[in-house]
From TrEMBL:
<feature type="signal peptide">
    <location>
        <begin position="1"/>
        <end position="19"/>
    </location>
</feature>
<comment type="similarity">
    <text>Belongs to the oxygen-dependent FAD-linked oxidoreductase family.</text>
</comment>
<keyword id="KW-0732">Signal</keyword>
<keyword id="KW-0285">Flavoprotein</keyword>
<dbReference type="GO" id="GO:0016491">
    <property type="term" value="F:oxidoreductase activity"/>
</dbReference>
<dbReference type="InterPro" id="IPR006094">
    <property type="entry name" value="Oxid_FAD_bind_N"/>
</dbReference>
<protein>
    <submittedName>
        <fullName>FAD-binding domain-containing protein</fullName>
    </submittedName>
</protein>
<dbReference type="InterPro" id="IPR016169">
    <property type="entry name" value="FAD-bd_PCMH_sub2"/>
</dbReference>
<dbReference type="InterPro" id="IPR016166">
    <property type="entry name" value="FAD-bd_PCMH"/>
</dbReference>
<dbReference type="InterPro" id="IPR050416">
    <property type="entry name" value="FAD-linked_Oxidoreductase"/>
</dbReference>
<dbReference type="InterPro" id="IPR036318">
    <property type="entry name" value="FAD-bd_PCMH-like_sf"/>
</dbReference>
<dbReference type="GO" id="GO:0071949">
    <property type="term" value="F:FAD binding"/>
</dbReference>
<dbReference type="Pfam" id="PF01565">
    <property type="entry name" value="FAD_binding_4"/>
</dbReference>
<keyword id="KW-0274">FAD</keyword>
<keyword id="KW-0560">Oxidoreductase</keyword>
<feature type="domain" description="FAD-binding PCMH-type">
    <location>
        <begin position="65"/>
        <end position="227"/>
    </location>
</feature>
Length: 335
């Protein structure tokens, strides 16, 4: 299948307005003032603590990022986004840390931006940023089309497509940002623009872009190992890192150290075709606690392997070290 796809990202995740007194000047508007102005502008789309809509709007993938904002707002159109930003004035970002994709000011929820529209004439897909990648996959699968998106359920479109975007098919087609042809963007000033390599190459470079094609039927799943098999699993992981040359084969190794008696190692194996590659044989030959490897579609692979849980109830702190190849000594250094 030859698919070149387009992701139009109307991107605005969080915003913060704080009241600040400067010398003898009047204080800047506070987040409460911003919420009052938003109610006047969008009375049906502004929500406050205590409502189910507010709870949904401020909920994040990990608890460490969740903050109770003064209010939340759900713009329904590009014009709404522009008007909201004119009132608020600042845009935030995406991560699991507090104050990056959450705020104590005004939380902007993009849930209304949930289009997934395939244009067969141009072989492009328009994707709204207010949804998660697993819902995007599910909408595209009846068309036998896929995109370079998140590796587990619950990962949002907007944050991944702007932050890089590792996918199960990245070795074949690049990062998520490498597949973007055009962005729809609302600037902090509230002005809506379309950004591509021709209209604004510098801004487009900052947001990133490109195009690619791929199929949809996959095989894979998870294998769990007892900690007693750590040396064997480390060796298999290192061998895969150094020796795998099949771009369709991908894996994630998770060291699950909970400290409450449920410690285990899990290898998440993925192959972008309905076959079982020899490159995984070393993992398959290690005695395992459980394994679930089969041919399934992309959405089924994500939901059965990682579970459907968006906004999982855990806290997270990350430290990243870029590594090209995993040696056994590096793998043995995990906590």
């Amino acid at each position: 299948m030859d698919l070149r796809h387009l992701i139009l990202a109307v991107y605005s995740i969080t915003a913060l307005v704080e009241g600040v007194m400067i010398g003898d000047k009047m204080p800047r508007p506070s987040s409460s003032d911003a919420c009052a102005s938003l109610v006047a502008l969008l009375p049906d789309d502004v929500h406050f603590p205590g409502s189910s809509e507010f709870a949904k709007d401020v909920l994040h993938y990990v608890e460490s990022s969740v903050q109770n904002s003064t209010c939340s707002v759900e713009p329904q159109s590009v014009d709404d986004v522009g008007n909201v930003l004119k009132i608020i004035g600042e845009i935030g970002g995406h991560t699991s840390n507090a104050n990056f994709s959450s705020t104590t000011g005004v939380q902007i929820s993009m849930t209304a931006f949930d289009d997934v529209i395939y244009d067969s004439a141009t072989s492009t897909v328009k994707i709204g940023t207010g949804q998660t990648w697993d819902t995007v996959y599910a909408k595209l699968e009846p068309l036998e089309i896929n995109v370079v998106g998140g590796r587990i359920p619950g990962v949002g479109v907007g944050g991944l497509i702007l932050g890089g975007g590792f996918s199960w098919i990245t070795d074949q087609y690049g990062l998520s940002v490498d597949t973007v042809v055009t962005y729809d963007l609302v600037l902090p000033s509230g002005i809506f623009i379309q950004v591509n390599s021709t209209s604004d190459p510098d801004l487009f470079f900052g947001l990133k872009g490109g195009f690619n094609n791929f199929g949809i039927v996959t095989s894979g799943g998870g294998i769990s190992f007892d900690l007693n098999a750590t040396n064997l699993v480390n060796a298999a992981t290192s061998n895969f890192s150094f020796n795998n040359i099949d771009s369709k084969a991908q894996m994630i190794m998770a060291y699950n150290i909970s400290g409450v008696g449920e410690d285990a190692l899990t290898a998440y194996l993925f192959y972008d075709a309905p076959t079982q590659p020899d490159v995984f044989d070393e993992f398959l030959n290690i005695p395992s606690l459980a394994r679930d490897l089969k041919v399934r579609n992309f959405t089924e692979f994500l939901l059965t392997t990682f579970g459907p849980g968006t906004n999982l109830p855990f806290r997270e702190k990350e430290h990243a070290v870029p590594i090209l190849r995993y040696t056994t000594s590096i793998l043995e250094a995990h906590p």
